[in-house]
Amino acid sequence: MKIGIGSDHGGYELKESIKEYLNQLGVEFVDYGTNSLESVDYPDFGKKVADAVLEKQVDRGILICGTGIGISITANRIQGIRCALCTDTFSARMSREHNNANILALGGRVVGVGLALDIVKTFLDTEFEGGRHERRINKIDEITC
Length: 145
Ligand code: RB5
Hints:
It is built from 6 helices and 5 strands. It has 145 residues and is of the alpha/beta class.
């Protein structure tokens, strides 16, 4: 599995920790920035990773900003993206089993590194259950207004 990862300055440090963890796990990734703590605008990075997921450059995405809120709102504006902002592993598991989330969002100023890495691992390891959940996801994609 190949992961696309991106953040603003508020998520930069957590992004670097997650990259280290992905290396340890042997998970391939592409880093779409940002590359420092210098202030940037989270929509720019949310869109880059969302586009990479939709264009199948990567299989799933991970987005981080200070709270995870702005960058997840951005990603969810894009048709076909199901971005789940998670602060616990139960939500991360459900976001895959029930929602087939294709992007995980995290708040770099909200969750500690240890919890964030557990959330990432859960997101990576959990498969979509399909069945009735497929029908519900299709209904999300039918909403265009
Ligand atoms: C940047 O200061 C901060 O607003 C951003 O990282 C994020 O938390 C927005 O939702």
